[in-house]
Amino acid sequence: MAPIINSISPNQGPAAGGTAVTLTGSGFTGASSVTFGTNPAQFATLSDTKISCTAPAGSGSSAVTVTSSGGTSNSSTFTYLPSPVVSSIAPNQGPTAGGNTVTVTGTNLSGATAVVFGSHSATITGNTSTQITVQPPAGAAAPVNLTVTTAGGTSTPLPYFYIPLPTVDDISPALGPPLGGNAVTVTGSNLSLVSAVRFGSRTSASISVVSDGEITALVPLGSGTVSVTATTPGGTSLPGVGNPYYTYVGQPVITSLSPNQGPAAGGNSVTITGSNLTYTDSVRVGGILTPFVTVSDTEVVAVAPGGTSGTVAVLVHSPGGTSSASYQYTP
Q1: Rounded to an integer, what distance in angstroms lies between the CA atom of residue 61 and that of residue 83?
Q2: Which residues span the domain enclosing 293?
C-alpha cells in the first residue's frame, strides 16, 4: 500500500533549502525516498506516521512525495520563498539610545520575523513586500550590520551607524543683543554632523562646522538667558554639561548724568544712571575711552577725561549695543 501524506510542516522555506520539515501521514515504514519536486531530500523515518526531512534547494512550489515498496504517496505542496533583499536604509544613522524610526526598503520583505541591528533585534512597526519600518534598539557608537529575516532566509547586510549624543560645553561670546545676528563659537563634542543649533526655542539661521568639537552659529533674536543645544543624528544635546547658555543683553540706556559738567582737565567722577548697564564694557566721553566701574544694572561711575572741549556725547557700550547720544557732558 502506498504511503499517504496528510500534512507537511512547515510548508514553506528559503530557496537555498535547509528547512527542517516534518511529514505526517501513514504507511511511512520502509520509505525509500522523499522528494521535493525532482530533488531528493535527506530524511529519517521516525515512525509509520512521521518522517523528518531537510528541504533541498529549489524554487517556486514543489510537490513533496514519499516513496516506499508500496508505491509513491500523494503529493503535498512546499513553497520556496525568495530571500529578502535590502537595498537601502533611511536614515542609515541614528542615536545610540535607539527608538528612532528607520525605513528599510528592498524586495521580498513580507512576513519579516526579525530586523537585526548588529546582534540586537529591532521593533517592527510596519511591513510590506518592499518596505519595513522599525525602531532600532540601543547600541554602542559604532557601525553595525542590519539584516532582515523572513521565511525565505536572511538578507545580506547593510551598514547602520550609531551616532553618539552631541554635547555643548561653552558659547563664546555668551552675551549679545536681543535682535541677534551676531556670530558665536559653540564648543563641545560630537558636533561634526550637526543639523541645527537652537537658542532656547529659536533656531540659528546659519551654522558652520569647524571641527568635531567646534561650530559657529548666527544668533537668532531672543531675550533673557537661554540654553544652547546642538542636534545631530545622535540626538539633541542636554543642558548641564559645561556652560551651554547664552544671555540676551538689552541695549544700554542713559537717563541722567551727575554731574553733567566738570573741569577741562578731567579726573572728576561722573555717575551715569540708566538701565541695562550690568554688562557695560566701555564708556566714551567725547569719543575718548575712560575708566569706569559698574555699580549695578542702573548705575555706572566713570572718570571724565581731559582733552575735550565744548559739549560732548557720553556713550555706554555693552554686548547689547551702544546707548544713544542723547546725554551730553560739558568740560
Answers
A1: 15
A2: 253-329
pLDDT at 199 over 80: yes
pLDDT per residue over 112-143, tens digit each?
Answer: 999 999 999 999 999 999 999 999 999 999 99
32-35 own/partner pairs: CB under 8 Å, 24+ apart: 32/67, 32/68, 32/69, 33/66, 33/67, 34/64, 34/65, 34/66, 34/67, 35/64, 35/65, 35/67
Report the predicted TM-score, pTM, of the whole model to 2 decimal places. Answer: 0.76
As a whole number of angstroms, the distance between CA 258 and CA 217 comes to 41
State the total domains in the chain: 4
The 8-class DSSP code of residue 262 comes to: -
Regarding whether 100 and 74 lie in a shared domain, the answer is no
Question: Domain check: are 123 and 144 in the same one?
Answer: yes
Give one word for 210, left, alpha or beta, with left for phi > 0 and alpha for psi -120 to 50: alpha
Angle at 47 between CA 44 and CA 52, to 5 degrees: 35
Same domain, 188 and 159: no
**Contact in structure between 153 and 17 (CB atoms under 8 Å):** no
